[in-house]
Fold this protein.
Amino acid sequence: MARTLAGLAVLVAVVAGVGSEPFLRALSSVDPGLVFVALVLSAVATVAAAWRWSTIAGRLGVALGVREAVAWYYRSQFLNTVVPGGVVGDVERAVTQGRDAGNLPQAARAVVIERTVGQLVQVAIAVLVLVYLGSEFQGVLLPVLGIGLVLLVLAVLGTAASSARARRAMRRELGELAAGIGSPVVLLRVVIASVVVVGCHVATLGVAVAAVGASVPPLRLAALALVVLVSGSIPLNVGGWGPREGVAGWAFAVAGLGASTGVAASALFGVLTMISVAPGLVVAVGSTVRRARTHSATPPAVLTVAHRGVGS
């Protein structure tokens, strides 16, 4: 709840700073062609992410077909977008797959590793691009990323020093991480899939930038897009909204393109993202209907025995 409120507060501050015009410009820029492009890019990104998840899950002993993974990933993205917190969909797919595979802990680890690797690859790409193409952002963003890395390392070391039990747990999880992506071939697949996902998101934001009327050279656009995308990972947001719009306004202002243009592009990106995960709603409804039909088709005697078994 606190994170959601913080995200709302940031969004209100952005509106107070630039007004409602950028958001209205974003909404007025939506058209069928733009939606089609966003849906295609989202589909490619979803398939790549689902392949990444399927690969890691298989390594951890909870086999998952790519086709099934794509359906669950769409549903996960939809829930992450519409439910505050941004992780409900990931929890749901971990639990669902864990129940189906009969191994909830390994299914949960597969989801955590998959999402973590994706975020790390995105940050690594952002750092490389900023070093070579984003000189105007280096003085702020690179120190921020460096401080974040130091804090993460300190948190890990502090946890390890707290108790022997914590150290055993960390060694166990590191072993699971090695099992999930330890093979060079698997690591390459996971990195390639992550690069495809990031590339599709960058392309979607680039389309949004063009749609709101800004003309930005491709390499400069890549740097701006990665700055905005990394800010969208800050866990103080509402379905991705909040810090992303604030950072987009700052980054575009620094680049000489105007804060309102950055906010408009980020807002349009958010709208396109929400539309692009709409297939997840279809998957969620279909899954609910199938479960209801399966339940109604189960003979009453079987249901009675099952309930007795659970209570015993």
About this structure: The chain has a mean pLDDT of 85. The longest helix spans residues 104-133.
